[in-house]
Amino acid sequence: MSGKIIENVSVSQCYQLSRKFDTHYQRDNFAPFMRNMLPFQRGKLAWTAIPSMQLRNFSKYQSSFVNRRTVHCNAAPSTAVVPNLDKVDFLKLQNGSDIRGVAVAGVEGEPLNLTEPVSEAIAAGFAAWLLEKKKADGSRRLSISVGHDSRISAKKLEDAISRGIVGAGLDVVQYGLASTPAMFNSTVTEDDAFLCPVDGSIMITASHLPYNRNGFKFFTNAGGLGKADIKNILERAADLYNKFTAEGLTSSKGKALASVKRVDYMNVYTSDLVKAVRKAAGNIEKPLEGFHIVVDAGNGAGGFFAAKVLEPLGAVTSGSQFLEPDGNIDY
After folding, report:
1. Most C-beta atoms within 10 A of its C-beta, which of 15, 189, 205, 291?
2. What is the DSSP string of 298-326?
3. Which residues form the Alpha-D-phosphohexomutase alpha/beta/alpha domain (predicted)?
């Protein structure tokens, strides 16, 4: 797997280390450039997933040498590789008006394609799309809420998405475990205490797909995004991704940690939902009294519905099952 530039090293140290371990060079090719190459200047190395590194940023004479031979070095390569991806790789993640991909390794024949860097780029693409859609003039910072279901890859993707949003200059509010309708609702709720309404929202979910999959749904106060919007975001993400460096990704983690806000929005959502049902029923306190409603939440994010919505409205929910979130379950 080829990688982008990943590490600054002292090439002279690399050369000396290679000599120590008897790494052999073709002296007939090397000799004409010895005067120009020693002492080496600090340069950037690109890892090609074999125990060799190709030198970059040399003079025109040194470059002609590099083009002819690979300089082998026993220095350990960095593990922080940003794999090269084309725009088509991003577009393959589109599933109608959603994004879907493999976020957990270990299933034969299903390679990872929804990685943290990819997710960070997609979030930055959504942020750029939102800034354009809202015609932001810089008078205020836009904000995006992020929530997720119970999948085991949810937290790492939530953090990656948050980094992408912060890096794009927007505020991010994490909700943690949430339902998809709640994420849309956060764009229309008016409650300053819970930083609402937000300008956009991302739900991390893959609905009924197996545990190793995950994906994203996007909302504004106009509703869910359409197919054309998702394609636009993925195209933006591909362009942004190809500008990523390992150093930049590491730096973005620190910036996001310092600026991410977290609120318990689900308490607001369930309370508002109960109030809305009561109002629609003619201001009756328990409009569902006498009803026996069984909930099967499939170990997803919807287990709250029995105790926090139906029971306050008067329903009996005994017999409900799979209310506890479990990200290892195939939905």
Report:
1. 205
2. TTSGGGHHIIIIITTTT-B-TT-B--S--
3. 95-237
DSSP letters, 129-157, are: HHHHHTT--SSS--EEEEEE-S-TTHHHH
User: What is the DSSP annotation of 66-130?
Assistant: HHH-PPB--SPPPS---B---HHHHHTTEETTEEEEE-S--STT----S-HHHHHHHHHHHHHHH
Domains contained in the chain, CATH given = 5-68 (no CATH), 87-263 (3.40.120.10), 264-331 (no CATH)
Tens of pLDDT, residues 249-265: 877 777 777 789 999 99
pTM tops 0.70, yes or no = yes
Which residues in the chain show pLDDT less than 70?
A: 1-81, 330-331
Question: Do residues 216 and 99 make contact, with C-beta atoms less than 8 angstroms apart?
Answer: yes
Give the C-alpha distances (Å, rounded to integers) separating 214 from 70, 92, 95. 40, 14, 12
- Which residue has tokens 């991704």? 241
**Six-digit token pair at 134?**
């809202």
Q: Is 179 a catalytic residue?
A: no
